[in-house]
Amino acid sequence: MPSALIVTFAQSTVLNAISNLLAQLIDQRKNTTPFTLNTLALLQFVTYGILIVPINFYWQRALEARYPGFPSRAEIANLLRSWRSLFSFSALRAFFSSAISSEGSPRMSDDGTALPLHREKEKEKETTGRWAPRAQRSGLHSFVMKFLFDQTVAGAMNIVLFVVLINFLKGETLSKVWELVLVDFRPIMIARLKYRPVVSTLMYTVIPVDRRVVFGSACGVIWGIYLSLYAVV
To answer: Family, per the entry (predicted)?
Structure first.
């Protein structure tokens, strides 16, 4: 039976080819010219996809190993309730009432005298213990961390790799490629942030780790069309 990486290779390659073909069709239809397959552009984009698949495959596995699990339904429901209550008038009134009523009420020492602020903090450390065990991270915490890494580190990595690889495949020099990275990074990142958060939310709540690259490719057919058009198919 083929490994998860091989299956991901095959499925992502097919999806990348489809997105490039659709991009060529859109581009030529827009210019009102008869459709002619640009084989070189297709091979360049498919090759870029093949090179990028293992990087993203192992990146997703590393993220899952570091932040395992999915948020539970209870955690999602509690989060939604917290957001609703956070912006309610009663919650704000309770917060300020609590802050006002607790002001000027220092903690007491063992002999009944008030503790200064710095001694109060020391007392808390003595009570909880320096080596108290850490609470186990929740599935919601894992989701948030994976989501943030996907929007920042993975986003920047994939954009730089796209510009570098696609232009090296076109035969550009190193200095020209670096110039294109500086020019193209910002517009591509802005475009990515318009669709990727939705994909990441689904990816890190219901999609198994070995299926995430394929799921991203399937959701990214439109993104692949955009990249193909950006690369001037």
So the answer is: Belongs to the peroxisomal membrane protein PXMP2/4 family.
3-state secondary structure of 114: strand
**Host domain of residue 203:** 4-30+39-86+137-232
Q: How many domains does the chain have?
A: 1
Residues 70-89 pLDDT 10s: 777 676 667 666 656 655 55
User: CB–CB of 228/20 below 8 Å?
Assistant: yes
**The model scores a pTM over 0.85:** no
Cα–Cα distance for residue pair 132/125, rounded to 1 Å: 10
CA distances from residue 112 to 107, 124, 143, 178 in whole angstroms, order as listed: 9, 16, 46, 68
Maximum CA extent, the chain: 92
Cα angle value 125/131/136 (rounded, 5°): 110
Checking if the pLDDT of 181 tops 90, the result is: yes
**In this predicted model, what pLDDT tens digit does every residue of 30-61 receive, in sequence order?**
777 788 888 998 999 899 989 999 999 899 89
Tell me if 162 sits within 8 A of 145, measured CB to CB. Answer: no
168 part of a folded domain = yes
Paired tokens of 178: 């670096």
Q: Does residue 104 lie in a domain region? A: no
